[in-house]
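User: I'm new to structure prediction. If I give you an amino acid sequence, what do you actually give back? Let's try with this one:
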Amino acid sequence: MRARRSRTGSALIEFAAALILLSGMFTGIFQVGYTFFTYSTLVNAVRAGARYASLQAPNSNVADPEFAKSVVNMVVYGEPRPATGAKPIVRGLAPDNVELVLGPSTATVSVRGFEIDAIFTKVALVGRPTVTFPFTGGVAK
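Assistant: Good question. You get back a string of structure tokens that encode the predicted 3D arrangement of the chain. For your 141 residues, that looks like this:
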């Protein structure tokens, strides 16, 4: 009977150590998963903005301010003319983080100066994601 009492405390200590390790591992997995999910959402938003720009692009290289604003809104809010008080598709994404570059035959949209705010760290995205689409002249294929 005495041997059984001396072992009951060790099970509690092992459980506490395992709980600490498992909770740290699950937190890290959640953080990495959230970062990849947010980055994937940004890639899709930038792709949608570049595609929108390539289909709606003006005839000249000089960007119309309304056109540029609609492309930025497409990336940030998911639609060219969002309702008042619309929330960005990614928390913390602002119109100032989106860059539109119109070339002679392409539209390039990228996210600059944005950080994904994960649980313990912030992941800085330096010039990523960036997507370039050729102008299609308003013809969707």
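You can read the tokens as a compact description of the fold. Here is one thing that stands out. The chain has a mean pLDDT of 84.
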